[in-house]
Specification:
- By secondary structure, the chain is of the alpha+beta class.
- The protein is elongated.
- A hairpin with a 4-residue loop joins strand 1 and strand 2.
- A five-stranded antiparallel sheet has the order 2-1-5-4-3, with helices on both faces.
- The protein is built from nine helices and five strands.
């Protein structure tokens, strides 16, 4: 599902790098893309900045978009100042959360080295993040029969085997797979099964 992200456009808007996490639950995101400089990622990880980073704290506590320079939270470990030493001088934070998201939020941090982000650029990236948040939401309308067929496809069973196992015609199996593919926006039954698995539906 990482193909949801338009890397070319994100790189053009945030040439110094970006980090995107989609559908963050209690611990891990469904999709995580880290296009920040490797040396900064290594330093950030080594220093265990995650718990102290004012950008991350803002992303978890707010919805919307803001420039790093406007976050206004304590930065005792000087995370943002140290980021500037790695060319990450001008950043924005974008966080998306909606009532239908079962406690999940999506967020991104986008960085430039040359200048601050314009209002138009912030709006464009904000719009992209909301689209990604919506498009990565698990469908809630898959039926038990469709999930049963997807589970069998994931287990490597062929259509004829599935039909025999559940006592329906191959045509009925194909129809359930078609319905599931449409709901999951997948091209094939195998892709639909993989997506359903990623969503934790199987």
């Amino acid at each position: 599902m990482a193909d949801l992200i338009d890397h070319e456009e994100f790189s053009a808007l945030a040439p110094a790098g970006y980090y995107v996490a989609l559908r963050v639950g209690f611990a891990f995101p469904l999709i995580e893309i880290n296009e920040l400089p490797d040396d900064w990622v290594a330093h950030y990880t080594e220093q265990r900045f995650m718990l102290f980073d004012p950008v991350i704290r803002w992303l978890y506590a707010n919805v919307g978009a803001t420039r790093w320079s406007e976050i206004g939270l304590d930065d005792d470990r000087e995370v943002i100042a140290q980021a500037q030493e790695y060319g990450l001088r001008h950043g924005i934070a974008i966080s998306c959360f909606d009532e239908m998201s079962d406690g999940q939020r999506s967020f991104g941090s986008f960085v430039r080295g040359d200048r601050d982000f314009s209002i138009d650029e912030i709006q464009v990236l904000h719009g992209h993040m909301w689209r990604l948040h919506r498009d990565s939401a698990p469908p809630s309308n898959l039926t038990d029969n469709e999930l049963e067929v997807l589970r069998m496809v994931k287990d490597g069973m062929r259509l004829k085997q599935i039909a025999h196992e559940i006592g329906v015609t191959e045509g009925a199996v194909k129809q359930r797979l078609r319905n599931a593919r449409d709901k999951l926006r997948a091209q094939t039954g195998a892709q639909a099964a993989a997506k359903a698995h990623e969503f934790g539906l199987l």
